[in-house]
Amino acid sequence: MRRAALALAAAACALGAKQPEAATREAGHGKPRKKYGKPYPETKAACGVVMFGTGDDYIQYSARNAQRIAALAPGKNWCAAQPDLDRVLVVYFHDNKKADTLVRKGLGGAAPRFELFYLGTRAKPRMAKFEALPGTKRWARDYKWLRPQYYKRSPFRTTLNMDGDAVPCGARLVEAFRAFAESKAAVAGLWHVGASYSGLNTGFMAWDKEKADPLLAAWADDMRRAILANRTIRHDQPSLAAALNATSGVKVLRFSEANVCRVCRADKEGHCASTCAADSCWVDHRDWGPNYNKAGIDGIAKVDGGTKVSKWKLTPAPAEHEAPG
C-alpha cells in the first residue's frame, strides 16, 4: 500500500512538473517544432498575425503592439476556417539575437503572450525552406528581402501581417479576417497609389497561404532579380506590385480607408489626441515616416529618447469632441 502511495505521489509530481511546459507550449512559447528537418514556429492555428523586427528600438516598441494584439479577446466565429478560435495568435519573426531581452524591456519586464521566432542570419537562415539573402553584399535595407520569405513561411492558413506602427483598434481587428474570408480573395490590403507604382501596402496585409502562393513566389523572384542585378534594393512593395501585375488569377480585396485608418484627430497643440478616430477603424496605421506619435500609443511611442510627431497633417477635432474647459 505504501509503495503504491509513493508511486502515485511520484507520478503526480512528474505531472505537475510538466504542466508549466505544457501550458507554455499551448500558448505558443515553447521550443520550435521541426518541419523539413529545420525549426518552424510552434504556434499553430488557421488564422493569426505575423510581425517582423530587426533593429533594437523597433523590436522594443513593436513588442508592445504584439502584446496588445495577443491579449485581444474577440470571442469565437471570427476565423472562418477555425470557428472555435477565441484569441488572436501572434508569431513575431526576428533576426536579432538580443530579441528576448529587448522584448522584455519593451514590455516592462512582462512575459510575451506571443511566440518569438529567431530566423537566423540573412546569410544562414535556420527556418525551414527559408532562402538566404541573394549575393554576398550587405546594405542598410537588406532586411526587405525577408518580407516575402516569412510571408511564404507563415504557420497560419490565413495570415495578417502587421507592422509595428499598425495599432489594433481593439477586437475590431478581427473584422479584417471576416471581410477577407467573405471576399474569397487571395490577398488583401490598403491600396497604395504613388508616383512610381500602385499596389498593396504590406504593413497591414492579409493573404490565404494556398491561394497567394504563386504571387508570393513571384514576389521573391522579382526581389531576387533586382538584388542580383543592382546589388541592393530599397523597398519591398514595388516588387510586390510588379509580381501582382505579372501573376494571373490572383484575386485582391482592397481594404477601405474607413477601416484602415490613416489620419488622427488633433488636440489643441496639434498633436494626435487619439487613435482609432472612428468606430469603423479596425487598425490605426498612419504613415509615420521616420517619426512617431507624440501623444503615445504604447506600441508607437519611442522607447528610448524623446517622442516625435507624425509627418501627416492632422485633422482638427470638431468642437463637440473637445474636452470641456
From TrEMBL:
It comes from the Eukaryota. Residues 1-16 form the signal peptide. Keywords: Signal. This is Hexosyltransferase. It comes from Pelagomonas calceolata.
